[in-house]
Design brief:
Layout (H helix, E strand, L loop, with lengths): L18 E5 L7 H13 L3 E5 L12 E6 L2 H11 L14 E4 L6 H8 L16 E4 L2 E3 L21
Antiparallel strand pairs: 1-3, 1-4, 2-3, 2-5, 5-6
């Protein structure tokens, strides 16, 4: 009907968007360094999910991350404050750009996306996995609903 969004657009309109994608992150950054930056910029306790992809072979960050904020208001503020950020804790000329995550929006969507992913296999180091938070503290990821296969060699970049 005329009142429905066009096909291919998720349910999350601008008012409900909570997941941002950060691009242009330093390749030698770590998840901890990114979390420290996010907290220092005033967002401590205001996010519940972070995935910071790392190349399994080179151990270098792939330069982007997905962060889910607690509310759409938090996400809008994060977008405004962090887009253009360049005050890294290590020498880097990169300037962060922040956009909206697509197609995954919201905590439940990310849990559903990753809980049965090879990324969550016991052979994958914790620092390479998506992380959940509650009130600023790391919390366990929900257990998988099926047997998780180990990641295949050579497909590390495909796991995002």
């Amino acid at each position: 009907g005329a009142g429905r969004p066009p096909r291919g657009q998720g349910k999350a309109g601008p008012a409900e968007r909570t997941t941002v994608m950060l691009r242009n992150l330093p390749n030698n950054y770590t998840r901890k360094a990114l979390l420290d930056m996010i907290d220092a910029e005033g967002f401590a306790g205001r996010y519940d999910f972070l995935y910071f992809p790392i190349d399994f072979r080179t151990h270098a960050a792939l330069g982007y991350a997905f962060l889910n904020l607690a509310t759409a208001k938090d996400a809008d503020e994060f977008h405004s404050r962090i887009n253009g950020f360049s005050g890294w804790s290590i020498p880097s000329s990169k300037v962060c750009t922040v956009g909206w995550s697509h197609p995954h929006q919201g905590l439940e969507s990310h849990i559903a996306r990753y809980r049965n992913s090879p990324l969550m296999h016991e052979s994958v180091p914790d620092a390479y996995r998506p992380a959940l938070f509650s009130a600023g503290q790391r919390v366990p990821f929900p257990p998988p609903t099926k047997r998780i296969k180990p990641p295949r060699q050579g497909t590390e970049r495909m796991l995002v």
